[in-house]
Specification:
The chain is α/β, with parallel strands linked by helices. The protein has one domain: 3-Layer(aba) Sandwich (Rossmann fold). It contains 6 helices and 16 strands. The strands form 4 sheets. Strands 1, 2, 5, 6, 7, 8, 9, 11 and 13 form a 9-stranded mixed β-sheet that branches. Strands 10-12-14 form a 3-stranded parallel β-sheet. It has a two-stranded antiparallel sheet with strand order 3-4. The longest helix has 19 residues. It is globular, with a radius of gyration of 18 Å. Bound molecules: uracil (URA). Uracil (URA) binds next to helix 6.
């Protein structure tokens, strides 16, 4: 199945590729052990990176093959910066770097203030040339959308002009928040699930992505 959009969320691309869907099902299964979960997360994120880079602009350059000179395409301009939202975002970073090894990496850490429920930044490290790069924010789970929206806002303040967001699973509630706060940011996900439960977990989901990646529960 090709990538497709959802009528409710025009900025969203659902990546329907059979390998993505197969790997997502393996991630959902609660019996999948930590090491396997981590490996599959790496594989599926490589495929998500393939989709999110599909429209990168190309220049034409002259190259000398061993046979003759030719005009050939090469990525144009400054390239990519991946920004995982700590900690689960790190679990889908390496697969993306497998595909785009020259990308720069920034990190953003946010926690939710237990009293106000507002996301609070505790870590931020970005490359200096972030305004010239396509910035791809990554987090496996788009649940309430508040961390993702706060991360995108902070990256804009830091000068990021071209932003995209990649997750593996999205809740409609989180997509609505992103659509409201960042309608111009394209979102890529492997699936849109039914809803959030009362604790903010995606249903049917895959559980806590950080715990499943790092074996902390
Ligand atoms: N974060 C997770 O890891 N899982 C969810 O279902 C929601 C947020």
């Amino acid at each position: 199945m090709q990538a497709y959009s959802d009528a409710r969320f025009p900025a969203v691309t659902v990546v329907g590729h059979p390998l993505v869907q197969h790997k997502l099902t393996l991630l959902r299964q609660k019996a999948t052990p930590t090491a396997e979960f981590r490996q599959i997360a790496r594989e599926i994120s490589l495929l998500m990176a393939y989709e999110v880079t599909r429209d990168l602009p190309l220049d034409t350059v002259t190259v000398e093959t061993p046979m003759e000179a030719m005009e050939a395409p090469l990525l144009s301009g400054k390239k990519l910066c991946f920004v995982p939202i700590l900690r689960a975002g790190n679990g889908i970073l390496d697969g993306m770097l497998d595909l785009v090894p020259s990308a720069r990496v920034g990190h953003i850490g946010l926690y939710r203030d237990p009293a106000t429920l507002v996301p609070v930044e505790y870590y931020l490290k970005l490359p200096d040339d972030i305004p010239e790069r396509l910035v791809v924010v990554v987090d496996p789970m788009l649940a309430t959308g508040h961390s993702a929206a706060a991360a995108l806002t902070r990256l804009r303040q830091a000068g990021a002009a071209q932003l995209r967001f990649v997750c593996l699973l999205a809740a409609p509630e989180g997509l609505a928040v992103l659509q409201d706060e960042h309608p111009d940011v394209p979102v890529f996900t492997a699936a849109i699930d039914r809803c959030l439960d009362e604790h903010g977990y995606i249903c049917p989901g895959l559980g806590d992505a950080g715990d499943r990646l790092y074996g902390t529960k």
